[in-house]
Amino acid sequence: MGRLDGRVAIVTGAAQGIGAAYAKRFAEEGAKVAICDVLDCTNVVNTITQSGGEAFGMEVDVSDEAQVGALVARTVETFGRVDVMVPNAAIFAALNRRSFLDIGVEEWDRVMAVNVRGVFVCIKAVVPPMKEQGYGKIVNISSSTVQAGVPWFLHYVSSKGAVDAMTRAAARELGDFGIRVNSIAPGFTMSEQIESQREALQFNLDMNLAGRAFKREEMPEDLLGTMVFLASAESDFMSGQTVVVDGGLVMH
């Protein structure tokens, strides 16, 4: 028996990296998974289905309300329901580390469109089917950079602070419908994209390692237990919470 047997989950930004790790673990725990990204999701879908799981993939821009609506509609049509939404898609690895004085308005707006509007659009799209069934789990992805006040990524940190605020406010609005809204705040995690930029990001990595209770790199696998917990019935009496998973850098 898996911890997510019978559940249907949507994971955005899941063609690679941490999102792919979430989707694969969900399938291992018995969930049927809808995967989306602006990139091709075929490899992740094949990994799941070849292991006996059920999944499909779509190319979706999460900042586009119509595309997200089509994703949710296809999920319900294919699997009959939606129990879990993980709006994981975000812009981070492609951002250059620099003073906010050097961040242009166009770049600011691009980050906000994906990292904030994308989460809003995903939550909004999934609420109707969750309300109809009287149950749902929304697991947002924040960042421990919000609590730590990490400099040189003001647009990214601000976007994740907005996700925390959205988590709390949405939890208040949706509790009466049996929908739980929580958030995971990862630390600096060595996803495929970050690993490919290790040299450029070494300063950030060293800063994180120096401050952590556990003096090792954070890997995508370190987030999976918390993610499954928040997606499962085990956390049914939790809502509006942000769980920091960063090796003990931020303590609150």
Description of the structure:
The relative contact order is 0.14. The mean pLDDT is about 95. The chain is α/β, with parallel strands linked by helices and about 250 residues long. The protein has a seven-stranded parallel β-sheet, sandwiched between helices. The chain is globular and about 45 Å long. Strand 1, helix 1 (about 15-30) and strand 2 form a beta-alpha-beta unit. About 45% of the residues lie in helices and about 15% in strands.
CA-atom Rg in angstroms: 17 Å
Shape: globular
The order of strands across the largest sheet is: 3-2-1-4-5-6-7
Give the distance, in angstroms, between the N- and C-terminal Cα atoms.
34 Å
Arithmetic mean pLDDT: 94
Major sheet = 7 strands, parallel
What is the strand tally? 7
> What structural class is derived from the secondary structure elements?
alpha/beta
Number of helices: 9
Helicity, as a percent range: 40-55%
Order of helices and strands: EHEHEHEHEHHEHHHE
**In terms of per-residue confidence, which ranges show pLDDT below 50 for 5 or more consecutive residues?**
none
The percentage of residues in β strands lies in: 5-15%
Could you name the key traits of this structure?
252 residues; alpha/beta; 7-stranded parallel β-sheet; 7 strands
Summarize the structure.
With 252 residues, this protein is an alpha/beta fold.
List the helices and strands and how they pair.
Blueprint: E1 8-12, H1 17-28, E2 32-37, H2 42-50, E3 55-59, H3 65-79, E4 84-86, H4 105-133, E5 136-141, H5 145-148, H6 154-174, E6 179-186, H7 192-195, H8 202-211, H9 224-231, E7 242-245
Parallel strand pairs: 1-2, 1-4, 2-3, 4-5, 5-6, 6-7
